[in-house]
Amino acid sequence: MHTPDGFITSWVCVVILAFAIGVLVRSALVERKRMTAQRALLMSGLAAAVFGFQMLNFSIGNGTSGHFLGAALCAILLGPEGAVLVIAAVIIVQALVFADGGSLAIGVNILNMSIVASYSAHFVYTRLKKQTIMGGFFAAWTSIIAASLSCALLLGIGGPVQLSKVIPAMLMTHMFIGIGEGLITGSILLYIHNTKHGLLDKSGIKGLARYVAVSTMGALAVVSLALPFASQSPDGLEKVALNLGFFDKAKVIHTFQPMADYTLPGIEGHISTIAAGIMGMALVFGLAYLAGRMLQRKKAETIQ
């Protein structure tokens, strides 16, 4: 669902970017009040894992694929503000380093995949009487539907396609992608439930560090093993754009893309993609951890 540059009018992208920055600032202010070294580490580990899993596209049939988003998982574990910051960090690195999503459209992608997806998942999950694994499934499914609807509205209002055509096309496609999102989210929640009931309990920073390290390495192992079998079909948004005839509107504005298409220059094949993925996970981890520690420092200064 990464929107490229050219799909949505520039002035709409600028307005949405300003709104997205405002939400990010608010989220940072909320997170500053509860930021600890443990929480910063957890956010970083989640960011790295989400980045890795987003590299794996799964087929939903009819020549279309989807990929894990992760906003619901982060919203369940961190709350919506933390999820917004984590997914935004992933989106920024993807756009600026890997050419996945437009640079001018960063605000659009943060709105759809980070803000809308995180808050819709949080809304559904917290209103279920029993916040179970099944609740995580429904929250994740809802997050994909809400994000796709938001994307469709922007494409219809500020893009080259009619709302009456793009809304049903996006919703129908992402209904099935949402099932994949729900299954992955539920499986991860089940793993967490069986291995560690409280990620932010009194086990301390060392215990959490070991847990994050094992989980991140596990995510990397899954990505490495599954990558050769990942679907090469266009994702939901690309398929809709092809079917409705606006795919050729995509433009490249940001030309410095050191690992475009998740490949490392000078290396070929799956090894190149895996190496790029490792570097991407490291970049996202570092960005999220730096942001978390800066917020923790600001919190300490405020208390003093």
CATH architecture title:
Orthogonal Bundle
Distance between the termini: 43 Å
CATH class: Mainly Alpha
Helix count, DSSP H or I runs of 4 or more residues: 10
The biggest sheet amounts to: 2 strands, antiparallel
User: How are the strands of the largest sheet arranged?
Assistant: 1-2
Cα-atom Rg, whole angstroms? 18 Å
β-sheet strand percentage: under 5%
- pLDDT below 50 for ≥5 consecutive residues: which ranges? none
Tell how many strands the DSSP assignment holds. Answer: 2
CATH topology: Arp2/3 complex 21 kDa subunit ARPC3
Helix content class: over 70%
- What's the mean pLDDT score? 90
Structural class category: mainly alpha
- Classify the oligomer: single chain
* Morphology call: globular
The helix/strand series, from N terminus to C terminus, equals HHEEHHHHHHHH
Number of domains: 1
Characteristics of this structure?
two-stranded antiparallel sheet, Arp2/3 complex 21 kDa subunit ARPC3, 304 residues, single chain
Helix-strand layout with pairing:
Elements: H1 10-34, H2 37-54, E1 57-61, E2 64-67, H3 71-78, H4 80-98, H5 106-126, H6 133-158, H7 163-195, H8 204-226, H9 236-244, H10 269-303
Antiparallel strand pairs: 1-2
Helix pairs in contact: 1-4, 1-5, 1-10, 2-4, 2-8, 2-10, 3-4, 3-5, 3-6, 4-5, 4-10, 5-6, 6-7, 7-9
